[in-house]
Design goal:
Layout: H1 3-15, H2 18-25, H3 29-43, E1 48-50, E2 55-57, H4 59-86, E3 91-97, H5 106-115, E4 119-125, H6 133-136, E5 142-146, E6 154-163, E7 165-170, E8 180-181, E9 190-194, H7 200-206, E10 218-223, H8 226-234, E11 240-243, H9 245-249, E12 255-260, E13 266-273, H10 279-291, E14 294-295
Parallel strand pairs: 3-4, 3-5, 6-14, 8-12, 9-10
Antiparallel strand pairs: 1-2, 5-13, 6-13, 7-11, 7-12
Amino acid sequence: MELRDIEIFLTLAEELHFGRTAERLHISQARVSQTIKAQERRIGAALFERTSRAVRLTPLGERLRAQVQPAYQQIIAAVHDATTAARGISGLLTLGTMGAMARAVDNVVAVFRSRHPSADVRFREIHPPDPFTGLRSNDVDVAVLWLPVREPDLVVGPVLRISPVLLMVAESHPLGGRDSVSIEDLADHVVLAPNGPIPRYMEESLVPFHTPTGRPIMRGDRVSTWQEVLTTVAAGRAVALAQAEAATFFPWPGIRYVAIHDAAPSKWALVWSKAAETSLIRALAEAARDVGTHTSNGDA
């Protein structure tokens, strides 16, 4: 089976529509149909169920996609890597960051650009409740995420930054006048909840579900973006936990950032897809290792 035939099969398996598959691959719909029929003849069974209203993968088609897709991605990444190596490190790397953590990679990006003048980095925002979708959809090549990340398809690279965790609270809130609080204090108040597919283990590492003595920490409004966090906290409906950089880069009328004296600091690292690793990604990781880890007090 030719690589192009595999691409056609995988694209149809995703789109489940012959017309959209043809449009996406810039080929004719007849070419898509002929390719799939040829694959089915070679295999000896149908890969898709076709009706006048829908296209669906057969169980055999599902099995073939599950086995072929990772190998296809690795081949594409290997070819890209070889091409890049042949002409030196060049191209555009898309780096996903959250809020103020875009500043956590300033030194790393500066070193990367100085070493590889034919390469560049562009930034794309990632929202905390949805840390992995951009990597898995290839919208970003590398992301700066807080740890732990325990996903078998993702690689955790160098740690860039270690940041204290602070409490975001309205000035009028009962905790708003405190100089510091403890995790135990959170059981008496409502904490914002993320509105997205963040794994429970990752959420818990930043915002525990229970205090050290076992008391539950209540979740309140579900928020998707940093703007929603700021406005909800300022309204006094809930408190939130955030890295110390937020206090520097996101001051907000009516909000205070209060120390949490027993909260573990957050570690932020480069993370990328195992199947999509390239020489560009490795070069950025090498720059990060050479720059080293910065321990933050909320500064740039």
